[in-house]
Amino acid sequence: MRILRDIESEITKKEEDKCRKSFDLLYCASKHRCDPLKFHNLCDSKGPTVTILIGTQNMLFGGYTSQSWTSEKGSFKSDKDAFLFYKEDNERNKIKIFEIRPDCHEWAIYCHRNNGPTFGGGRFANHDLLTFKATWYGEIKLENNVFQLNGKTNIGSVYEDKAGDVDPKAINGGLMTVSDVYVYQVQDEPDKMTDQLKVDIEQHDIRLKAKKEDLLKLNELLHHDYNTDHINILLLGEVRSGKSSFFNTLATVLREEVTSTALTGPEKTSVTTRLHRYELKTKSGHAMPIQVIDIRGFTANSGYEHEIDQILNGNVKPGYEFGKKSKPIGKEFTLAGGPYKIHVVCFVVDVTQVESQQHSAMVKKIREMKETIRKRDLPIIGIATKFDVLCPKIHENVENVQRSAKALDAVKSTAEYLEIQENCVFPVVNYTDDTDIDKAKDILLLDALDCIEKRAMDYLQQVLEWKTLPSVWTSRIDTLETVSKNKEELLSKMGNVEEAVRILCVGRPNTGKSSFIDSVMSALLGEISCRATGGSTQSAKGQRNGIPDTKKYYPYQLKIPENMIERTHVYLCDMPGMHEKNGVQIDQIMSVINGHVPSRHSILSGITDENSLYVQKPQTKDRIHCVCFFFDASDHKGNDVPEWEMNCIQELKSLLHQNDIPFIAVVTKIDLLSTELRAGCQNPYSNQRLTECMVNIGERFGVRRKHVYPVRNYVHEDAVEPATDALLLAVFKEVLKLATETKTQLDKDGTVLE
Asked: β-strand 118-119 against 129-130: which pairing, if any?
C-alpha cells in the first residue's frame, strides 16, 4: 500500500538514525470482521501500529501510535509521537498530518476491550477517531462489501492541523463508510545487505577498456551517418543535486584519473551560473564523442521557462549567464544551426532530498520541463546521487550501493519523483573529495553511461529515418498482394504461439480501434466479423463529447478457420478511447499494459492495488507485448492536434520505450482522404494525400516511418475485399512479429514492467 511509505517518512522525521520500517498486517476487517475482541486478540501488546481505513469517498485515513494496544475497561495512554492522517487515494496527492497537541499527549490513544482502534478524546472531549465499537453500542452494516461502521470522527479534540488548510469534517465526506480497516505492526528494519553484487568489480578494467573502444568507434559513425560529431547530453537538476560533480565523475572515469574540470562547492545557491559545454577526453588526449551541457540548477521558483527551448535546440552560446529568474535569450547569445542540439536529457537528483520533495512545487516544475522535452521525443534518464550521504555503509564501501535495501528504495523513490520508469534511473556516487580511483564508483557510472549512449543513438536513428529517402514504404508496395496470398503462412504462425501474446489498441474515441479488431478477424476468417463492435458504429453523442463507446478492457482471442486450429493464443485487446475528460487516462492504460487489469474490467472506473480484482503479480502472459496507436487520417491532414493528445501519447511512448515494449502507428479511415482510396486503390502508397498524412503523423508523434501503417476498416461491407485484407494483414503480421519477440524476451529475462 503506497500510503505506508508516506507514513514511514512521517515516523522517521523525529529519528536520528532514520531507520527503515517494516509493516506487518495484524488485522483486516474484511477477513476478521469488525469485532473489538478479534482486534485486541490480534493487535494487543504489539508495540507501534498504524491503523488505515479505506474510505468509500476515494480517501485513506487513520492513525499511528508508538504505544501498544491493550484490553482494558477504559484507559488513555500517553504518546508524544502519535498522529492522525488522511490522503486522497492518488499517489500524487500529499498526505495530510494531524499532530497531537503538546498539552494533550496523555490522551493520545484510548484502550477499551469493547472498542477498535481509538485515538484522542480526554476529559469532557469526544474521541478524534473511533473506528468501531461492540455491536451492542450500534449495528455495523455490511452491504456490497462496504462497512457502515458505528464509530465516528471528531478531529480537533486532541489532534490538530497546524497548517490550518484541512476541514476535518470533509474526510471521507464525514462518513464512516469504508471498504476495509487494516492494522499494521510497525517495526524497525535495519538496512539489509544482499549477498552478491549485480556487477563484478573485477570486470572493471575490461568494461572500461571496451567502453572507450566503443566510444572512439562512434566518432566516425556519428559524423558520417548522423551529421553530428558528438552525443550531446543536457544535465538538469535542482540546486546542489550534484550535476557538475556528475560531469567530473564522468570525466574522471574516462581519463582514469581524478579530475575537477567543473566548478563545485557547498554553497546553498547554484555554483553553476552559466551554460557550460564540456568535452570529454581520455588521458592520452583522444577526444570522446560526448559533450555535456551543464546549466544553472533550478528551484521551485526559478526554472528555464524562456530558455529551455533554445537550449534543447542547441542554439545557446556557451558562457550564457542565467539570471535569478528565467528570461528570453538575446540574439547576441544565440547560435544558428543548433550546433549543440541535445540528444538525451539527464535529470540529476539528490536522493537524500527526494522524500521531502515528493509533493512539493518542485514536482510541478519538473513536469513542465518534461513536457517540453517530450515534445521533441528526447529520451530522459535519471541520475540518482549522494548515496554515500544517505547510508553510512555506502560511505564506507561504495560496493554496498548494489547491496543496500535503502539504496534500492531510494532509486525507486527517485523514479516516482521524476515520474519515469525505474530501469531508467541509475545510482551514482560522485567523485568529490577523492584523490584515488574507486572502481565501484566507476562501475556505477559505466552502467549509467551505457544507457545514456543507447538512448541517444536510438534517438539519432529515429531522426535519421525520417530524413532518409527513398521511403521505407516503397518496399511494401510489392508485398501487399503477397501478404494477402500468403494468409495461410500467417495463420500457421498464429497457431504456433504457445502462450498468450497480447496486442493493445490505444487511441482517441472514434479512431477505429474496435473496428480494426473486427476487420483483422474478418480478414483472417474470410468473412465479416462484428465481435468487438457488435455491429454498431460510434454514437453521435460519443463523437461530440469524446465519450468512448467501449467501456471495458476486452482481450479478444483470435480464431482462425475451422479446418485449422479454431482458437489461438493471440489476443487483440480493446479498451476505452483516450480523452482529456471523459476517456481512459495514462495510469489506467499502464495498469493494463503491466497486466494488473482483469478481462472485461470497467477500466474507466479505475483500479488500484487495493481493489480485490487487481492482479497483484501478473505473469508475462498477462502483460501487453505490443501497442498500436490509432490515428484517424481525416483528423491529421493539418497541424491542429489537441495539446493533451500530444502530451498523452508522448508520455505513453516514453513509458513503453523505457520498458522495451514496441509500438506502431495505425492510420485508419484512409478512404476519407480521396475517392481513389475510397474505391479500394491497389497501391495506396502512391496516393500523395495518404503519404503526406502518414509523414505528418510519424513526425508529429515521433513514430518511426517503418512503423506507420495505413488501413481501411470493414464498417458497412457485407464481404471481405482483397485490397482491404492486404492492408489489414500487413499491419497484423508486423505487430504479431513484434509482440511474439517481446514475449520471448520477457520470458527469457523475467523483465518486470512496473
From this structure: antiparallel
